[in-house]
Batch of 2 targets.
Target 1
Amino acid sequence: MNPHERSTLTANDNVYPLVLANISKQYPGCLANNNISLRIKPGTIHALLGENGAGKSTLLKIIYGLVQPDAGRIIWEGKAIDIVSPAHARRLGIGMVFQQFALFESLTVQENIVLGLSKKSTRNMHAVARRISDVANQYGMAVEPQRPVHTLSAGERQRVEIVRCLMQDTKLLILDEPTSALTPPEVDALFTTLRQLAAQGTSILFISHKLQEVQGLCDSASILRDGAVVASCIPAQHSTASLAEMMVGAAAPLLQNCTRTTSEDVYLRVTNLSLASDKLFGVNLQDINLSVRAGEIVGIAGVAGNGQSELLSALGGAQLCQRDEEIRLAGVAIGAMPADERRQHGLAVVPEQRLGQAAVGAMSLRDNGLLTGFRQGLVKRGILQTQAIDNFATTIIHDYSVKCDGSEALANSLSGGNLQKFVIGRELLQNPICLVAAHPAWGIDVAAAIVVHNALFSLRDSGSAIVIISEDLDELFSICDRVGALYRGRLSALKPTVDTSSEAVGQWMVGVFDGPQQRWPGSGVNSKQQCE
Amino acid sequence: MLTLLVGAMLFATLGKDPLATLYAFFIMPVSDLYGLSELGVKAAPILLCATGLAICYRANVWNIGAEGQFLLGGLVGSWTALALLDAVGFWVLPVVLLAGSAAGAGWAAIPALLKTRFNCNEILTTIMLNYIGLNLLLYAVHGPLQDPAGYNFPESALFSDSATLPILLDGTRVHPGVVLALLAVLLVWLLLSKTFLGFQLRVLGKDAGAARFAGFRIRRLIWVALLLCGGLAGLAGVAEVTGPIGQLIPQISPGYGYAAIIVAFLGRLHPVGILFASLLMALLYMGGEMVQIEMGLPLALTGVFQGLLLFFLLACDVLIGYRIRFITSRPARVPVACAE
């Protein structure tokens, strides 16, 4: 198809690139898609809104050929077809960026991208590498083609996924929560890219929980609830509140501030923490200083891959520090203490990856509750207390409204957001004196995020210290008392959120911060920005 | 079933009546009480090795070295028994059994050390140690432990009565080792399903990353798995030499340690499943001997049957999980190159 034909199509509104008619999909235990009909116009950005488990992911999988619908028709460019596989979908011109990354960890960025390309265009690997860099630069995304994917952080992986789709001649680009791992300038850059693509005639299906983004970017929106389309609208004509109401079904409860227990007791103190990363291409932590008081939430911002995973490993005990005194938990030096002893002293950790770090996919929820909750009376003299373990898991599922098939459900059968609620609940139920959490609300919907944030607040109000490591500035500003940013393994000074702005933190995230840690190797970016 | 079918075809091509041979292979060995008791005697060492291996495999520790740990258990057990040849008392036997068990665990400690310290692949180290163990055994029966009054045959002196497992059932060879094996099954089952240690081992096997983040001591778990397995395999070895054999000979194991690998997987790494799988495997051993006597077929058939069994088990596992698709050449591609 050449550009001229495409423009005539745009003129004719009756010819949609993609029409879904009465799509239904039944899974054991739930009707994931119920009679969904959807039309996507050429050259528009269409938003798909809905809570966790509303059926968005299933619908995307159907469009991308990963799942076959039980009923209904898919009409692609005027012809009814069955999309039998993702390869078929890509040949048709459908590109997808997944929420859970679909990258091979042991391969490099370039190899991963080549896998999605046609044979013809991959003969010359040098040309491919050049094109990757070109595409990446064009849209302002730093990607090193030769790096193995397992060394990349969540944000970097997402960039690879987006670049991979942009490499192909895509007529319909599907983005499942593409902005959750990006900094505000990166989000702006991405939106510019998407508008550019839409202007060239590419249709975009955009899934996000951030309603402001949807309002600012999308031309139209379909709202899913319980597997069915409950409304279609033009998002700019509605308020955020009314959009949220359509998604959830009732007005979302507001966050409330109750009486807070604060004190001058420092529960977590990190002193001059320096740690060489044990990973290839990892970031070495240098002179990290951090203190968190009881009843305080401290946020650590930063672009993915600037030492977040390493800081999390160092705090959680997955990687031990050189000296015991580098980390103190309520006065106890724990720097060289293994993770289970740290837990005994009242530390809880929510790691970055849900499956593979926070939970075991092939085990049931009750076993996953036991995974870190084993100090809550679930084990007596080395013997598992079946009843207590069951109760623990059931309590988590109930208190944090985890949607699942009961405590025997396997962790990998849960949607990302529901598993996150389970993991957060598991850590919070242990009443830690200090909680370290990596992007707690990443990829979960408004209602679930409120559940998680309220839980964090009540933990804070009960006098615990909380550290949030996140790439989502909005989240940090809405829940944290003080924020700082990581840049190349160094941490900026922490400032109260009320005295700073997202612009200022954005500056810290690219390395412009003063104070004792201003000893970075002179790089062009830094010196230029300082002059301004 | 597939194993039986292919086995029958094999017998037919060898010029024997397939049904009669299968009867001789699978039914005749257990047609009387003595046969049944022999089944238990044969199954006991396999069972001990396989339950130990199940612990390792559940924790993703690929111990192929049950054979070597078995041989070392037999060797050191024999050495202890011979050193205590003149001792009389109820304490002799436990000492001998413990020595054998400890030797098996010690042999397993070598790969454990290499894996936790130097990150050596335990598959390679355990296999290599199997051969070292076998050669140590051969050296011992030809050298230091050889019976001085044995006309230079490669075997040790017979152990004293105090160092020999008693017969539990008259007219059979059932010895306490069989009971120990059943006990081991029960204990390992309890360990894996009811204790926190077993839970940690299972988490390590399913997702090492999660085990690390939950704060489990991975090195310690690897040690525990290998030592337990080595101890059980060593116990099996010493129970063989002090039980049915009564002396140290070069052929104390007809490949029990390797057969146990098949048994562990055949039993789906579950102790109760392993119990039944080990009985089946013991039957294969006995059937192999039976057809050799009755039909004049070679003993190597046992190995063939074991191989067939594992092969079909793995193949069925793959075919249950995945579907075979025959990929024909793709239809002409929808134009994708228009961007070029």
Target 2
Amino acid sequence: MTLRVTGLRKSFGGVHALRGVDLTIEPGEVHALLGHNGAGKSTLIKALGGAFTPDGGTIEVAGRTYDGLSPRQSIDAGIAIIFQHLSLVESLSVVDNVFLGQEHHRLGVVDRKAQRAAAATLLERLGATCTVDDRVGDLPMGQKQLVEIAKALSRDPVVLILDEPTAALSSHEIGALERTVRALQEQGLAICYVTHLLGEVERLADRMTVLRDGAVHVSTSLLGKTRRDIIEAIAEPPTDLPPRAPVHEADPPQLLVSGLTGPGIGPIDLAVRPGEIVGLYGLIGSGRTRTLEMLFGRRPRQGVISVGGRTVGRSSPRAALAAGLALVPGDRARQGLFAPLSALDNALLPAQGTLSRFGLRRRRAERAAFEKMAAGLAVHPSTPDAPARAFSGGNQQKLLLGRWVNGILPTTVLLLDEPTQGVDVRARHEIYRVVRTIAAERRTAVLFASTDPEEIVALADRALVMQEGRLVAELSGDALDEDALLHAVHQSESDLQEYLS
Amino acid sequence: MSAPASLRQLARYPLIPVIIAMAIGFELATGSFVGSQNLLGIATDSATLAIVAVPAALLVISGYLDLSVGSTYALGAVAAGWFASAHGGGLLSCVVLALLAGLAVGAINGFLCCVVGLSPFIVTLGTLTAVRGIAQQLAPLPLTGFGDGFAWLGGAKIAGLPSPVAIALLVVVVAGAILTLTPVGRHIYAIGVSREAAYLSGVRVRTVPFALFLGTGALAALAGAIKASVLGAVQSGTAGLGFELAVLTAVLVGGVSLAGGSGTLLGVVLGVAFLGILQNGLTLVGVPTFWQQVAQGLALVVAAGLAYLAPRLEALAAVRPQASRVSASAAESRPASRSAMS
């Protein structure tokens, strides 16, 4: 018995992120952990990594039982986690990264020779092509990930957890990683593999556990299971969203982009009509975020962008906003929210100039506008003075939507990057509802980017699939389903299969 | 605003009870602390500090920093004093000259920090040294013999108040209005919290701090000119030496975070008052200057310690009811909890 999680519970400010999760992973097993954004996968992993103390339940590793772990205890217990955002120091060499914090030393002096030898052995075992002296910052993503795995293995773990390890890898690198995982499995490691991609589940996993809304929905062996069975296990019951807004083919596009080009992107041509919701689907690193940021003027670009028939001149957020083009960024904490400032400031910051008279703010008008916005977007609590950090992820996201959709600013094109990142299931559906309502009632053209195929299917009228900075497919109507999206994004998957066999 | 709310507002200013306690203590020790004469003296002595600490505080709230104010102060004093003594310059021309000198320093700082994007710490440390050199080059010898016109700047009464105090009040009122009544005031906070998020919200993230550098430079130079007028003499090598540290101390003791995005003008005014009262009271009591410096330094560290502890104590109090098992990690678990929700 290697890892056994029993009845794990955790809530954050009234939101139940984990409600009694059981999970058992045996030695030599690859266990796929599945579920949509907000289902509780990341929270579960963070609990195992010691990021916080669970409210209840136990974690048993190699025969020892814990109520909760500190990061140190987690490592000592033998849990190794490879997060999506690697924890490497880019300016240090491979060997220094592998042994960071657990240097081999003799009489307090680092034993470089022993470290280099040990690191070289580990890298060879993983099939890495980099050398121990390479600077990590210079390595391609796939090699960085192997360094991170080497670092984890140097601590002699019994459980290895990989959080969407292929999300940022090229198809060639994915093949290499999958072979590495197999090899580690044969050496008797218990492996927990978090992914969105069904192909990886089919190829690698022995068992799967599907989380839904913080609880285990299905946990089963994959022996004799087909892709259909996996999809059915993951699929959520349909939710009642407002109907899709009618899109009139005769309407001129609200957003028209031609020849959009930038570093590693394009050329991209696309059009979004008034009231239409278009989803931009692609894997991490495919250029979705960069495309949205170029449209918004956050990054330098070439090409012509017109909003409502008028060309946007300068490439800057201010010029974009003046033209009616607004972006809700994906990195809410860093790019969107002003956590210590009030909800009102967060929602109305760009509108305060319009609301003011003779250069002075009009508080009453601001409060009225906030109340109207909060009611329309169902912001809870609707207190204008509470700091934004006191709100749940979903309501923070609504404040950011309200920043552009408040009846004061002339937003006619709304760009959303990962609109439901870090929000729970209920908030996710509410954000879908809000976006649908905005499109239907204000005839706003919406272009949103997501790595979650289910999100694209649930929200988009039409999907554009992105690969390596280019649009490679367009899906709409009955042709738009998760299978089609996954197939389109992995068009080279047949090559990949060949490469693996 | 209801009574409990205003009480809670007061609780955000721990300096208020401290200042009251200090006033009582000094009064008991000397019997001459609380009197309009002495209090007005403190206000006059603190006025130049307030005139610079206020714009400097706005700059810190927006996430920037100006260390060059001590030398800009000297440059303003030299510019005004030189024109007043060598050319018989009147009040207006001397003040305009000082302001122009301060604006020039502010423009250089603003250009390098906001447009080029260099570190404000490095840039203003550089201008601190360079501008002092310029001031000494312009006036290697002490300047004296200013005309009556220029003497008015520091010696006049405006609405019954000594002119430095009146000017400081004007600066506080105007800055307070900008910070609380205008959209730009919100932008100053927003830029300090997250420059990136402010930029993506359409805020002018270069222009706003640039203007604050201009204002800080101009008011530092004006403060220097006022002091020159009060003293009737300027010495370029010593005028405003270490003034930048007094300004920064007042700003930080006043509760403005060096990380940007938080702080109030009332806090800064209290910070200036605190330092003025401390110096005046200790002098009255007969504490030697060196020990006064020690007290000022300790006050800064204690204030910083309080600012560091307050949110952590608050967080600890908030999580205690549910996290009884592992209380040591409770304080850290709070910030982590938001990002864990994916």
